Amino acid sequence: MESQSCNGAFEVTKVSNLNCIDLSADIQKSVTLLKQACLDCGFFYVVNHGLSQEFMDEVFDQSRRFFTLPLREKMKLLRNEKHRGYTPLLDELLDPDNQVHVGDYKEGYYIGVEVPGDDPEANKPFYGPNIWPSTDILPGWRDTMEKYHQKALDVAMSVARIIALALDLDIDFFDKPEMLGKPITTVRLLHYGGDVSNPSEGMFGAGAHSDYGLITLLATDDVLGLQICKDKDAKPQVWEYVPPIKGAFIVNLGDMLERWSNCIFKSTLHRVLGNGQERYSIAYFVEPSHECLVECLPSCKSEENPPKFPPIKCATYLSQRYKDTHADLTLYKTQVSGGGPITGCD
Question: Do the Cβ atoms of 151 and 144 come closer than 8 Å?
Fold first, then answer.
């Protein structure tokens, strides 16, 4: 199938066939499949990860309960400077060149590592107390999300160990305190409200982007929407749908891993197109510790292939990427204090 892009060129879309990593299988087989996926497109499925379908159904049910609240209730939980809380429709602009400065047609909710406000660690970016809905409104919501946060980290650690072996590193390379021993991990609940995307007019559920960190685990409902572009420089770009598989995570590599691997492993461009159906997904972003220095791995450089990126601290890199893609919070404060309208209010 074909669709016209913003610049008038035609994009080709098809359905992608991704490798499937079974966490209960022989690890050497998993390393082979994962390495092929990382060299090819940076996306793969993970199955037999230990999270029951019953529990995943509960997490999605709790997510739906939040997003069906009136907008004025959700805006009381608006995200803060630590990127905790609710992100309204159009809050995020991931592809300014093609989105005509409109923003993503999705709403979300950030839940990070829970750090008490009086803990010195809370002074770091992306650490601090979470913003939680009232138990009167959403009983059991916090318990479910905190449980998911921990279970998803266990899956991420298993995947990171396979990635380490695929990069000819020790299996516990990413287990170190400066790596994932004290990670920046974030659950982001996402809701696409049934808008129909129109690439020719710059309207997307989520604009084309690559993720920022190490890896992302994505759980989705059964509504098709996610697309990947294996070669962002191709003319025309070829976009492939990634079909949801019940019970599987869709896993993709982030920009930090691309930097670490000196572009041997890919952080691939992806986006979401709305087709008129509501769609729910849950992203789990996995980044190393704040002080982790992201620099080319010894196994990924040589005289013929020197490092392509300068070293950078994880917290510095993440802070800039979030600043570049999210609306200024003062916009919402001005709307509320001035009595102005809140876009899309019920």
Answer: no
| Cα 203 to Cα 101: distance, rounded to the nearest angstrom | 10
The token pair that represents 216 in the structure block: 């992302």
* Helix or strand (DSSP H, E) at 146: helix 141-166
Q: How far apart are CA 45 and CA 150, in angstroms?
A: 20
Helix 141-166 crosses helix 53-67 at what angle (to 10 degrees)?
Answer: 120
- DSSP 3-state assignment of 67? helix
Number of H helices and number of E strands within the chain?
7, 18
Does domain 2-335 fall under CATH 2.60.120.330? My reply is yes
Whole-angstrom Cα distance, residue 124 to residue 105?
30
pLDDT in tens, 265-319: 999 999 999 999 999 999 999 999 999 999 999 999 999 999 999 999 999 999 9
The pLDDT tens digits of the residues spanning 111-158 come to 999 999 999 999 998 999 999 999 999 999 999 999 999 999 999 999
- Cβ partners under 8 Å of residue 129, min gap 6: 84, 114, 115, 116, 117, 122
Q: Shortest CA distance to 285 belongs to which of 214, 225, 192?
A: 214
pLDDT at 12: 57
172 vs 169: CA distance, rounded Å? 8
Largest CA distance in the chain: 62
d(CA 186, CA 208): 20
